[in-house]
Prior knowledge:
This protein is α/β, with parallel strands linked by helices and 394 residues long. The chain has 2 domains: 211 residues, Spore Coat Polysaccharide Biosynthesis Protein SpsA, Chain A; 170 residues, 3 Solenoid (UDP N-Acetylglucosamine Acyltransferase, domain 1). The protein has 7 helices and 40 strands. The protein has a 9-stranded parallel beta sheet, with no helix packed on it. Strands 14-17-20-23-26-29-34-37 form an 8-stranded parallel beta sheet. A hairpin with a 2-residue loop joins strand 32 and strand 33. Helix 1 crosses helix 4 and helix 5 crosses helix 6. The protein is globular.
Amino acid sequence: MKAVILAAGEGKRLRPFTETMPKVMLPVANKPVLEYVFDAARNCGIDEIVVVVGYKKEVIMEYFKNYKGIKITYVIQDKQLGTAHALLQAKNKLNDSFIALSGDNIIDQNSISKLINAKSEYCILIKEHPHPSKYGVVFIEKTILKELVEKPKEELGKFISTGIYKLPYEVFDEIEELTSQGIYTLSSVIQSTVEKNKTINTILADLWMDIVYPWDLISVNEAMIHHFPASTSGVIEKGVTMKGAVSIGKDTTIYSGCYIVGPVIIGSGCEIGPNACIFPSTTIGNNSSIRPFCEIRNSIIMEDVHINSSSYISHSIIAKGNIIGNNFSNITGEATIETEGEFKKIKNIGTMIGEDCTIGNNVVVESGIIIGRRCEIEPLKKISKNIPSESKVM
Length: 394
């Protein structure tokens, strides 16, 4: 059975991190989200995948050009009109039942296997969620889907659609009919199919996680890092203390006096310390350096990041290419963050910094602050409001 992975979207709510890459390529535990989907599909026997790409498609195609074990075919969605329109682009690459997956969700192989092995022609993967109104809410009788309500205004039900399906090839007839009327979402296709008295079975997902906002990366990273075993390469000098599951990549040097408590993942070509402290659940990307006397907690440090001495980073995301001066610190606490006209109250959040920023010495950033990409911040500044991309703080 083939799988179709929808990976064409930008992820506007995840800016500034999606300004240079699609949402599906954001790293979780030092792997792009899309790679988890590929691995889950491959591990349950799928050996051919059609990937629908669009926004920043070159980033995806370059990363997976040598991906082994699966035949990958790309189709392009030029305009990101919706999920049904995206799936329609794959029609000519299919001729039988298939699995439709979202490239921007973490999913496990067991959940996909349940779909593959289901006897029903139509199946939808569902999951219990504490905030169902953000998603498509499903109403079921026994295991049969009776209604799918997209983002209801009130908190109705408790199960949501994950946007992952097993579908027959004939579903394209319904998709073409609805898209010709300007209806482009797969949830509308599924609801229309229910209204035509087709039986759609529901299957409960084991592991499914969605990333909607930048701070979701931290919680998903924290959950997924526990799935990685300890492994050490590179050079670990005498006097380094490591506890728990710590993974260290090749050509990385951990200098004397460092204290690392897992789960922690450190990529290849990194330099850590001397006398740096890395606490759970932190991931550090390839070719990054953490200088002496730094302390990092529960954060995502992407690749090619250089954090200078005596800096404190907690519950934060530092995108690739950042150069951060000595004595940098972020405040961690509760924050109210505005996004697309909505105000989100987030507990225990640090800062989120886009790519390629240069931050001077002795800078302090308040909790919940988002700094765009390619910003310059001069020394001795306290940052208490969001900074747009390509700004200078003097």
